[in-house]
Fold:
Amino acid sequence: MMRARRQAVVPRNRVKNMLLTGGGAETLQDRGSRSTASQHTLNPYFNNNFMARWQEYVRWYMTSWEAQKIINIPVEDALRKPVELRGLHPDDEKQIWDAYDAFDADRQIRRALIQERLLGGALILPVFMRDDDEKTSDRLRYDTLRPGDLKALNVVDVSRLSRSSYETDPFSPDYDRIDSILVNGVEVHASRCCILDGNALFSRTAQTVLENYRFNPVGFGESKLAALYDLLNRVIGTQQGAYHLVNMASCLLLQADNLRSVIAADSPALAKLREIIEQLSIYRGAIVDLKGAQIAQHSATFGSVPELVMTFAQLLSAASDIPATRFLGQSPGGLNATGDSDQTNYYDMVGAYVRMRVMPTQRRIFDWMGATLWGWQEWTAKSVKLELHYPSLKTLSDKEEADIAQIYGTLLQGLVQSQVITAEAAVKELIERKIFLTPVEAVDFLETDPGIDNPLSDQQFGEVA
Structure:
């Protein structure tokens, strides 16, 4: 009599999360708990060839309206309304703006900011006249700039840049700041250019370890498309699938008897059948081997496909921090939805972008232009009270502007009547806010009432824009 063989007990591997037991959780079929982000994606970030990464981002930008909007919209909104220069004499302000337009500064700033978002960084390089013994690797001495020294503003992309030197001592106040950079092989001091580094998260030393050599050689940040790459593929794939269903909506099936023999004999009847299909359908058709000759239409079922396409597009809009009203041009959804909260949050985000990226860039460019117009010493004196003011992105209606003007007029009128401020100060404030359409003087508003010193009447202050 044979004795049953005793099976060996295979010890089970213990797992930390006891919920991951059974049902494939401990097998290779469990793709959810055993996969990583880099195993099943073609995201360019995981490509160590940084040149190939940049090329892939540029291809998406040039061929996908979604990618182009993600990159362009925040920049275009940040530059939509021109900055206001406050604290300059009107004549000096006009000369600055004339030089600003002559050097096409708005266009160059826009190009640099778009390249920073698309490729992770860019450089604005001013072309200055310099002495023979002056090197580009030396710090720029503003006091040596003379009128007419600025010749151009050039935008240099990351493919022309390479890292030269930066401070590596964590105890230094200039730690991790670029001291000089190689531009097309020429060393340029950081003070001679405006570096847009893409807001790199880690120091240039830590990038080598933490990003596994996937950073670009300049040490800049990563493209805004890197985090959205997989979602972009899904959005485009969903749209392509929906378009495929459109093609299938008018698909014909022609059933022909003894089709195999017709194909084998290369009969002219096969060409005739194909001609019939092409005449009946502009989309697709197929010939199948069945008894008899029939023509049937294959209808595609759309179901919830439109909602699915729109849902993916809305996910991309949310992931890129751009409201659907701006990204997709659709009206706000939901009961009693106005979209004001989304719009306000977006404007706040653009305002932060203006403060951190646009303002420092424009301030440096205005300094370059002021120095090349009057010389550094005179420009320093002229710009001692210069402030860059960025108007609100929200466009007010004529009625809203009139209501605000009336509120300011009433407020200032009360302050003058209470002798808190003078009439001259009130008029100056109204002029600064561009409420008056024509030049006025404070004497025009003086009242000859003996009981009140320099009051302003309601009728006079009602004459505002």
User: Anything to note?
Assistant: Confidence is low (pLDDT under 50) at residues 13-27, 33-39, 444-465. The radius of gyration is 34 Å.
